[in-house]
Design a protein that fits this description.
The protein is an alpha/beta fold. It is 40% helix and 19% strand. The chain has two domains: 232 residues, Carbamate kinase (3-Layer(aba) Sandwich); 152 residues, VC0802-like (2-Layer Sandwich).
Length: 497
């Protein structure tokens, strides 16, 4: 069986929903589909949730009907969400299926209104309440796509993933329990597939041990797809999005960026880690554990072959260049070598306590300086992080000086064994030097699939263009590819599995 995942732009309106349904029908059965909320709906749900928790303006603190409105405009935002869903439902061609979908949407929106009213009454928004509210978008999409498939003559059923994807209770960024997910997928999804149904599940959401709805955080829908694929031993997971695959660079920065036809799991994870937007870094992990191929495809160009992600990939050169922006470069200097361990412990402890992500760390040749790249722009930048670390040093009774530079970008040249090639880092630095890009720090580890350099953020775009031009050789035009048939996929799975 295969798993197909569709993002919000692929489900944004009735026409896109029908196009997604056509793609599903064209795939071999058995198949499961994972859906995001329609484009823009999650942001509206977040706005409604925060508006409900805000104090109402004086002019709306009472109404002649005696009904208290949702504070801060939450009710009006919920009405916009309802209108979006009703407009999509209006495009379902079969009257009976359209009527059934409208009835289920009414239930979802009544539950949304209740949740917003509860938040308004409490005067605060908990993470548990927020997860319950934002899950409405994915649930509506699953109802709408399943109805659209049935209207086209394809037997289908929708299923809310808070009954399938098992997680802990870290609301807002829940961690999956893969063992329990496998049990629940076998009990709830497998029988539907065996009966000939296409199963449409909600992405992004899961279920806590007590049954509460959780969300998986950034990249949650893609993650849901690979979690489900691993739980059901899928032959392939397809991520259908608005781009034609993994690109050799950001096309907004590099005009001649092109689709990379084949990357390894390691390459895909490094690209995601260093700023490529097609996949979230954790999306690939469940597929790695089971050796499941993942294919990145575009709903706007379904005939294109996209990018295949497997355990191994051909070629050992640089395949893509990317940049991770909005970072801070921390420099921790200690007077004596023996102070470095204590200083490091204080730094990493303080960053962990603040949930600040560490992107890279290295030690200078003098062994008395440590540099750390962190993603802390959303945590107040240097103005917050530098005194935070100073306080941590004082508490640990460690003498150290903390320097902080912002904004910084980490540029990465990614390719299998690229970092293991002799003089690879020297070549990267030479390219950046010729492009007049200052390098704040650089790293080459032969076990990695990426060469990295930290540069001032203002130079990131020039750095990416220069590296792409120098390290990724132009390839001759070839005939347009196609996606393999299922027999080819099975053979490919055997080869890589």
């Amino acid at each position: 069986m295969i798993v197909l995942k569709f993002g919000g732009t692929s489900l944004a309106d009735a026409a896109r929903l029908r196009a997604a349904a056509a793609i599903v029908v064209a795939q071999p059965a058995p198949r499961a589909v994972v859906v995001s909320a329609a484009g823009g709906v999650t942001n509206l749900l977040l706005e409604a949730a925060y508006a409900a928790a805000s104090p109402p303006p004086p002019s709306t603190q009472g109404t002649s009907s005696g009904v208290s409105p949702v504070p801060g405009g939450g009710a009006s935002i919920a009405a916009k969400i309802r209108d979006r869903h009703l407009a999509i439902a209006a495009g379902i061609p079969d009257a009976a299926e359209r009527s059934g979908a409208l009835a289920e949407l009414d239930q979802l929106h009544a539950a949304l209104d209740d949740a917003l009213a509860a938040v308004a009454a409490a005067g605060e928004l908990s993470k548990r309440d927020l997860d319950r509210i934002v899950a409405t978008g994915e649930k509506a999409s699953s109802v709408l796509l399943a109805a659209t498939l049935r209207a086209s003559g394809t037997p289908a059923a929708h299923l809310f993933a808070d009954r399938v994807i098992a997680t802990d209770d870290r609301f807002g960024a829940a961690r999956p329990d893969r063992t329990r997910t496998r049990v629940q997928a076998e009990a709830l999804v497998r029988p539907l597939l065996q009966s000939g149904l296409t199963v449409v599940l909600t992405g992004f959401i899961g279920g806590a041990p007590d049954g509460s709805t959780t969300t998986l955080g950034r990249g949650g829908s893609d993650y849901s797809a690979t979690l489900l694929g691993a739980a059901l031993d899928a032959e392939e997971v397809q991520i259908w999005t608005d781009v034609p695959g993994v690109l050799s660079a950001d096309p907004r920065r590099v005009d001649d960026a092109r689709v990379v036809p084949h990357v390894s799991y390691d390459e895909a994870q490094e690209l995601a880690h260093f700023g490529a937007k097609v996949l979230h870094p954790r999306t690939i992990r469940p597929a790695v554990a089971r050796g499941i191929p993942v294919r990145i495809l575009s709903t706007f160009a379904p005939e294109e072959p996209g990018t295949l992600v497997t355990r191994e990939s051909g070629g050992e050169g640089v395949k893509a260049v990317t940049a991770l922006p909005d970072l801070l470069l921390l420099a921790i200097d200690v007077p004596e070598l023996e102070d470095l361990a204590a200083a490091s412990a204080a730094v990493f402890g303080a960053l962990h306590a603040e949930r600040i992500e560490i992107v890279a760390a290295s030690q200078s040749s003098s062994r008395r300086r440590m540099t750390v790249l962190v993603d802390a722009a959303a945590h107040g930048g240097c103005a917050h992080v530098r005194p935070l670390l100073g306080t941590a040093m004082d508490a640990a009774d460690v003498e150290a000086e903390v320097g902080c530079t912002e904004p910084v970008a980490l540029v990465a040249a990614v390719g299998q064994a690229a970092a293991a090639q002799p003089a690879a880092l020297a070549r990267l630095l030479d390219v950046l030097g010729r492009a007049n890009v200052p390098v704040l720090s650089a790293s080459q580890q032969t076990s990695n699939v990426a060469l990295t350099a930290a540069v001032p953020a203002a130079h990131a775009e020039r750095a990416v263009r220069a590296l792409h031009d120098a390290l990724i050789r132009p390839q001759p035009a070839t005939a347009r590819g196609r996606r393999p048939r299922r027999t080819e996929l099975l053979a490919e799975t055997i080869r890589v599995g």
